[in-house]
Amino acid sequence: MPEVRRRAVALVVLCAASLMVVLDGSIVAVALPSMQAELGFTSAGLAWVVNAYLVAFGGLLLLSGRLGDLLGRRRVFLAGLVVFTASSLVAGLSTDAAVLVTARFVQGVGGALASAVVLGMIVTMYPEPRAQARAIGVFSFTQASGASIGLIAGGALTQALDWHWTFYVNLPIGVAALVLAPLVVDADRGRGLRTGIDALGAVLVTGGVMLLVYGIVETGAALPLGGAVFLLAAFVVRQARARTPLLPLGLFRVRAVSGANVTMVFMVAGMMGFQFVTALYLQKVLGLDALATGLAFLPAPVMIAVFSLGISAKLSARFTPGAVLLGGLVVVTIAFALLTTVPTDGSYFLHVFPALVLMGSGAGAAIPAVMGLAMSGTDPADAGVASGLITTTQQVGAAIGTAVLATAAAARTAGLASEGARAALASGYRLAYGLSAGFVLLAAVAAALVLVRRPRPVAEPELCVAGQAR
């Protein structure tokens, strides 16, 4: 197989597997009522069908990325696919609530192993700047649109078949990726475990991030959040002193890396929280069913595809990735500002559709830019941990956004219950959209301050030698 074609097939395999992992976080959302009815979940227990996955996935991403650097990224990717695919089968066959929640936790473990190293593999596979920008655009499409596609697929599968198929759908994708990846993805040796894995650092950061995600999804549980702060602070101290740190703190001296990760937290907090709120608005206020709700999100992934699969890379080459990121974030902020006006008797095409088009356009431009910046200036030997880091901040941002927006909307709705159920719900969702806009605006401020570089002053003639400034 010609090299260009082999790399293209490898990119498709990696991105398809990554998409499978991403959409699994949202594909079950519209199927939760069916799971509750069949398996007898309590309201609190039902939340753990989602939370068990998020806690394991978010907590293990950073460790998974470093394991890829040490053991070989392809090896870790394949191991993650095996775990994820097998646990998907167990989840689909579940007839007991506890078994389903346990399978979801194991899915999170496999998802972390498989997805944490993908961006690092893509950057290594495409070292040329233009080709790399296009490849990152394809990967970014899977990250940005996965949740929306998950909602569409979840609604279709639940309504046409049953909730079990929201897990069975992973099986053919996982098996195909396991067969093809060894054929088209180059093996890499990694540094080897003999260089040291910093076991204490791994325990501290995994426990800290798991407690952080748990504290957030449990809407601000004080004890887990306090424990997370303690463990993560201890992790930073450990990394500063360790001979072979799990996360080299020198990564944060790279302006693009540190700025991209901060921007990602705020950006995803707004975007992922928005999807949760919009699904509720469409069903509880506009009265759409599960399938129609999923299809209503379609404009967002379509526009994300249009921009991330070509336009974003061209804009970055014409301007700079930082400028494209800032422009995309401004467009997303405008989209959320429009949604703060949705009425109780609203119309999907009048009040929601235009915002989805704008949001998809802005996200499709911004996400490839921030992904590329997060990997720029890093040592190839640290590509796995840099990939795991940006994916970790993405998950933490999603947990923060969903928790904050859901809590704020519920509180506003409860306070206005006397005005009628639909009116109170619509008011709560408008507040949540305002908070989404605020999160993305913070991301834009961070990008403007850190990632949008001002042009350097032209050097004086006497300081130039052979056409190059000293």
UniProtKB/TrEMBL annotation:
Record-level Gene Ontology MF annotations: transmembrane transporter activity
Membrane in keyword set: yes
Pfam family, one: MFS_1
Transmembrane regions: 45-64, 76-93, 105-126, 138-161, 167-185, 197-216, 222-240, 261-282, 288-311, 323-342, 348-373, 385-411, 431-452
Major facilitator superfamily (MFS) profile domain span: 10-455
Domain of life of the source: Bacteria
Record localization: Cell membrane
The protein, known as: MFS transporter
Originating species: Amycolatopsis carbonis
